[in-house]
Amino acid sequence: MLKTRRSIVLLSTVAVLAHLGGSIVHGRAHESLGVGLSSWQNIYVMTVIAIAPLIAMVMIWTRYARPGLVLLVISMAGSLIFGLVYHYVVISPDHVSHIPSGDAQGLFRTTALLLVFTELFGLVVGLLGLRESRN
Predict the structure, then answer these.
(1) Which end of the chain is more exposed for a tag (fewer CB within 10 A), N or C?
(2) Which pTM value belongs to this model?
């Protein structure tokens, strides 16, 4: 499927930018509904969910592609687990079925699901890229 370095670079870039866009819009829905995060969650979101994928994307464009792919896999897996746990498992105002009322409820739910798909896409692209880079 991923036979060239160029396709790995392109798909990983699409994955990271789609994830970043979804994260920004989801963050706005959080703000609109007043769904705050704890201090450690804010740090996690900024480092693992926002910054790490961007660093991975830049690395993938360079001779450090393989470590970039490793970082992409780790950050997307970490983002996916975090999102699944807090949006679909732990009952809190961050759970899609327990968010406060407001105009951004639909946006919150939609972007939470969108993030699952972008994180899965980034994780799969990263894993396929690592497999291809071994050859």
Answers:
(1) C
(2) 0.92
